[in-house]
Specification:
mainly alpha
Length: 246
């Protein structure tokens, strides 16, 4: 774990001032944190490849808020359809889905940290989502619906986590491939359109205009050939008619 340091000009004087001022009376003062080199350890950053706990908590709250709002809306609609109390049904559903979303997000963040965020593969993320979904479904099912719903909730939400993460990975990989193709295409276009390149990449409209110009040239050449043939026919006709006149 890496630690940040703050420079102290005179560490011995700082220790003495702490002892004489009485700020350490009744409290534990860790003077080992004041190094002889004149630095004080002021805090610790998370290890490399791990998410900060604050980030995991914030993501859990955001996910819980989203799923809780969705549960509130769906629960209210279900309450109206079932002719029961829609408000009570909506609040209960919102609380339950808030708990599911927040627990799932927090559990997935903890698993990612345990496995190493920078070492996770697509398959690891699928497994982590399945484990987090199973834990969220089993724990929330036990707290809200009783022991009988632990196994069904675990299986159902584990499947949701596996399938959902798998679909997300597939869409993400396809999006990444499309971006790579677009980047390569842009690079080739820049190279081909440079003044040093003997080639040029044409758009569909430019290619259509080029074909139209070539077609006009061909039509003009055909017209010239027709005129030449007409002149030849006329000259041959005149040559045939002159001896008969004599």
């Amino acid at each position: 774990m890496s630690t940040s340091y703050t420079s102290i000009a005179n560490p011995d004087a700082l220790k003495k001032s702490f002892r004489t001022s009485g700020c350490c009376v009744g409290h534990w003062c860790d003077f080992s944190r004041i190094e002889m080199s004149g630095t004080v350890r002021t805090g610790a950053s998370p290890p490399t490849g791990q998410l900060p706990h604050q980030q995991i908590a914030l993501a859990a709250l955001q996910t819980g808020a989203f799923t809780g709002f969705a549960g509130l809306v769906v629960g209210g609609a279900s309450g109206v359809v079932r002719s029961s109390s829609p408000t009570l049904f909506a609040v209960a559903s919102g609380i339950q889905w808030f708990a599911l979303g927040s627990v799932y997000s927090a559990a997935k963040g903890v698993i990612h940290n345990a496995w190493g965020v920078d070492k996770l593969t697509s398959r690891d993320r699928i497994y982590a989502s399945g484990l987090a979904g199973g834990f969220a479904g089993g724990s929330v099912g036990y707290l809200t619906r009783g022991r009988a719903n632990v196994i069904p909730g675990t299986i159902m939400f584990a499947a949701f986590g596996l399938v959902g993460q798998g679909l997300y990975n597939a869409l993400n990989e396809k999006h990444a491939e499309d971006e790579d193709k677009a980047d390569k295409k842009n690079f080739l276009q820049r190279v081909a359109n440079s003044k040093w390149s003997p080639m040029k990449i044409l758009s569909d409209d430019e290619y259509e205009d080029m074909l139209r110009e070539k077609l006009l040239r061909v039509d003009a050449e055909i017209a010239l050939v027709d005129e030449a043939m007409e002149r030849l026919r006329a000259s041959s006709t005149e040559a045939d008619t002159k001896p008969t006149e004599k």
